[in-house]
Design goal:
GO biological process, one term (chains A, B, C, D): proteolysis
CATH architecture of chain A: 3-Layer(aba) Sandwich
Number of domains of chain A: 1
EC number (chains A, B, C, D): 3.4.19.3
CATH superfamily of chain A: Peptidase C15, pyroglutamyl peptidase I-like
Largest sheet of chain A: 7 strands, mixed
Number of helices of chain A: 6
Strand order of the largest sheet of chain A: 2-3-1-4-11-5-10
Active site (chains A, B, C, D): 80, 143, 167
Protein name (chains A, B, C, D): Pyrrolidone-carboxylate peptidase
InterPro entries (chains A, B, C, D): Peptidase_C15, Peptidase_C15-like, Peptidase_C15-like_sf, PGP-I_bact-type, PGPEP1_Cys_AS, PGPEP1_Glu_AS
Distance between the termini of chain A: 43 Å
Number of strands of chain A: 11
Oligomer: homotetramer
Structural class of chain A: alpha/beta
Radius of gyration of chain A: 16 Å
CATH topology of chain A: Aminopeptidase
Largest interface: A-D, 41 and 41 residues
């Protein structure tokens, strides 16, 4: 049976949970589209997150990788289009490190596009009643770094694997402490991740529908 | 057994459901804090909504009234502080009427404050993990009109009844059609309404905690 | 020659200037629509701001009063519709006082509507290229308190005077320190205040155009 | 005397002016830091904008290129970090074309980073009282396409030239028609562009200060 790797992050900043990991682990072991989900937690540490991802890929030997991360302040499931080769950390990571304008992979390409069918995934989510959109930036912190590391590894070592990154909103209990922050329930989130995996497994070529930004 | 009236609105604009009514009807008949919940749907019609509310109050004879309405674009359960004596309709209501700068009750006071313990309700919601805040404006449309009509009826006819208004976010399936709109699951919403009713029943005098706005 | 009183506030929080005062004082002494502008600065102190306003009114004997205040985070000139009889201070004022849920005038009405032609003012501003809108809440801090104090004084002591409140955005140099905050240049702001005074002097009855909020 | 090329766009959508061009042309012919500014207008047309840019570069032979574009809805001068090799047009361009997920340069790298000192430029703007920030995405429309075209041309043909892209807010008269949109006066904008050119001429290596995004 083919394998699918779904990663989430450990909590960071003041939060005690991270919805990206809660959603991933809820699906661990589940069979979707004839493949087995394997969930792994990544550290919110710039220096080690990508090594942990590569370890997980070596163990799981996935044909599809979906990395998840928290985007406090975003209202929907946002499927990332592109990873850029830079770290510019607005706050220190969980190891206290805060690099500024360092490449993730020295000498690597400036960016990689997701190899997941991002627009088909957004369309499937919306059709099932889950708020979702394509995002044009994954930021410049650990999430973008893992997305870039994944894409670089795929491009240079595992050309048959497909992978990408998705940002998710706060859980309601997190937003209750951040007045004004939008949220999404864990149930909706788990359903969203399952839907995205299913869509990615079923979609070889992405659909051509508009999901751009004027600026 | 004492009675509690919880109202929600029928759908309006393009929407097929209204979370305010979905949450109200889910609690219909339930017993909370030794009182019975009675849910009633109000029309999204400026000319008839308040008459429908008074009919429901005459039938139910509640000691507590909680009116709910949809606020597409708000991210949390927002407990309204004040109703103002004006209708300024940005769009036509479900009967096609769009009054501009008309009083809800000609000759009535300019405003009424909620007689619910709004800050205790927000504190209870947050403590239970539900995003919530105090709102300083209920707008100038049907929601504000019902809130004002309720408060005027209480002030002039039923001084022992307590009542107020709460705006709720879109459901996820509504936000899926409104890219960027925050949402809240129906489960969370039902839990929020039950929590607010319980808190209002248990709290005679509101707590003094800051929940203001600089502007 | 008739007199017009325009007030602005002293700086508060970390800011060194307050655009509401900069705009007011730039117009001090100017003649508009056959009337003389008198600018006065009010303290950002809940206990004394309204007494300072009444002193200024006693000195100036205005037929029109336009009070201005800063709304950091708002993008346009926002003309306030209604003042409410409550103080709920999110931060301490310049005297270190932070009342919670206290009336501005004990026993006073819950609210007053502006007696300025708020919609004609917004229409005139937009026609002249100045971003503007009607606002449904002036908050619960010093701005709202001065607006309420003004309206209460007019209603109870000076029924022939007209008056209201307008919130203005940050100056660019303030927004430069608050990443993400919108701003408006002082030149535009001065032009906006002159336009509003002129419109208010020329407009006895406000125009009926929609400027409401759904929630 | 060295030459500097500053480009702006023709108006698009319903607007009659484009602040990016108004700011550029106001500086045409001016001498800054011992170099001459040459302003050129680019069409808001995906198929021809980059050819027009290359023509202008061939004529002007600049050592520095600053391309400007409008970002309706943004509140500050936003200095773009990265251009990506994709067009995903949310609306048709001025020629009626709306490509979806097409590369700007087939076979080109996925992205280019700005070769301007983006953080020094933002620091200089803020120090002079102009709201500014680093942006992590230039969108997927004509602005991003010109930025990518410029960067590709520099990387492959003119390695000694430096260039980048900056998004600017609406003018106040545009925001007056778009309620809620932030704006910036043309005077501030012209001052901002002059400041950025001056800073770019004076700064060989960008400063290392944090300007990242968590997501």
């Amino acid at each position: 049976m083919p394998n699918i790797l779904v990663t989430g992050f450990e909590p960071f900043e003041a939060a005690r949970v991270n919805p990206s990991w809660e959603a991933a682990r809820a699906l661990d072991g589940r069979e979707i589209s004839g493949a087995r989900i394997h969930a792994r937690q990544l550290p919110c540490v710039l220096a080690t997150a990508n090594a942990a991802l590569l370890d997980a890929m070596a163990q799981v030997e996935p044909e599809l990788v979906l990395c998840l991360g928290l985007a406090a302040g975003r209202a929907d499931v946002s499927v990332e289009r592109v990873a850029i080769n830079i770290v510019d950390a607005r706050i220190p990571d969980n190891a206290g490190s805060q690099p500024i304008d360092e490449p993730i992979v020295p000498g690597g390409p400036a960016a990689y596009f997701s190899t997941l069918p991002i627009k088909a995934m957004v369309a499937a989510l919306r059709a099932k009643g889950v708020p979702a959109s394509v995002s044009q930036t994954a930021g410049t912190y650990v999430c973008n770094a893992v997305f870039y590391g994944l894409a670089h590894h795929i491009a240079t070592q595992r050309p048959t694997v497909r992978g990408g990154f998705v940002h998710v909103p706060c859980l309601p209990e997190m937003a209750a402490l951040l007045p004004g922050a939008p949220s999404m329930s864990l149930e909706t989130l788990i359903y969203a991740v399952a839907t995205m995996v299913e869509t990615a497994m079923a979609t070889e070529h992405d659909i051509k529908v508009e999901a751009g930004a004027l600026h």
